[in-house]
Amino acid sequence: MAQARREITKAKYSTVRLAIRTGDVFLLEVGNLFKGKFEWGLIKRVAVWVFMKLIELWTWSRYSHTGIACWITFEDSLGNKIRHLCIFDSFGLEPIRIAPMDKLIEDGFWKIYWMSLGENMVSRNIVIDFCLPKWRKKYANIRQFVLFVVAPIRWIRSLLGFGMDTDEDRWHCSELVAAAIKAGGYPYEKSTALTTPEDVSRFSCLANPVLLEKD
After folding, report:
1. Residue 14: is its pLDDT beyond 90?
2. How would you label 112-142 residue by residue, b for 16+ Cβ within 10 Å and e otherwise?
3. What stretch of H or E contains 12?
4. Do 16 and 96 touch, CB atoms closer than 8 A?
5. Taken in order 34, 99, 125, 167, is the CA torsion positive or negative?
6. pLDDT value of residue 161
7. Which of 84, 109, 87, 125 is nearest to 32 (CA)?
8. What is the CATH number of the domain that holds 109?
9. Would you say residue 4 lies in a domain?
10. End-to-end alpha carbon distance in the chain
11. Domain membership flag for residue 1
């Protein structure tokens, strides 16, 4: 039930922010290497940029990363409850995180696209319920990426009756998103462990991507 590449529209993040709902999908494309606050340090920033560019080139896609939208409520020092829009994602060889979307938009390192989840096709509650227990789980191991690249290894594993997931307790970004949406009711037959951000962008349960722009 995948679709061809979709038309992309643009919108100001501040305008559509409140329309984004838990269970929606974010797709990310690396932007300007030298733009942003350099909180990672130059070496890590360059390494992430190169790795993400390689993903885009290898998958013939503009997208190198993806995650699930989620609204998180925090309580400040005065007891006031504040809602933050976040991305739930598996990123950069680090444990699965929940990161504030406002900060990612402001930084400028990424071009961020929002894809709304179809109401009648997938359960939002199940999508986020699937994700939350995965928080702080480890990123996918190197063997998973070898499977991506080396087709003969995939064939051998298939002949021997092994699945395509080298560690069911570790996740890469699009594996997590695809598995969550599949759990929510989307009929997806491809191995989630071999799913790419480009595959996610073609899910028929998602609306056309909207590029989120800073004010």
Report:
1. yes
2. bbbbbbeeebbbbebbbebbeebeeeebbee
3. strand 9-12
4. no
5. positive
6. 76
7. 109
8. 3.90.1720.10
9. no
10. 35
11. no
Greatest C-alpha distance within the chain: 60
Segment 160-203, tens digit of pLDDT: 778 777 788 999 999 999 999 999 999 999 999 999 999 999 99
Q: Is the Cα torsion angle 48, 83, 27, 15 positive or negative in sign?
A: negative
Q: Distances in Å between the alpha carbon of 118 and those of 19, 144, 204, 207?
A: 13, 30, 8, 7
Shortest CA distance to 136 belongs to which of 89, 180, 175?
89
Task: Tell me the HSE value of 81 on the side-chain side, using a 13 A CA sphere.
Answer: 3
Distance of CA 12 to the CA centre of its chain: 20
Cα–Cα distance, 140 to 147 (Å, whole number):
12
Lowest mean pLDDT across 33-42, 72-81, 204-213? 33-42
Residues near 189 by beta carbon (within 8 Å), at least 6 away in sequence: none
Q: Are 27 and 201 in contact (CB under 8 A)?
A: yes
Range of the domain at 69: 9-213
Residue 26 lies in a domain: yes
Domain total in the chain = 1
What are the tokens at 130? 């699937």
Q: How many residues does the chain have?
A: 215
Please provide the average confidence, as pLDDT, over all residues in the chain.
89
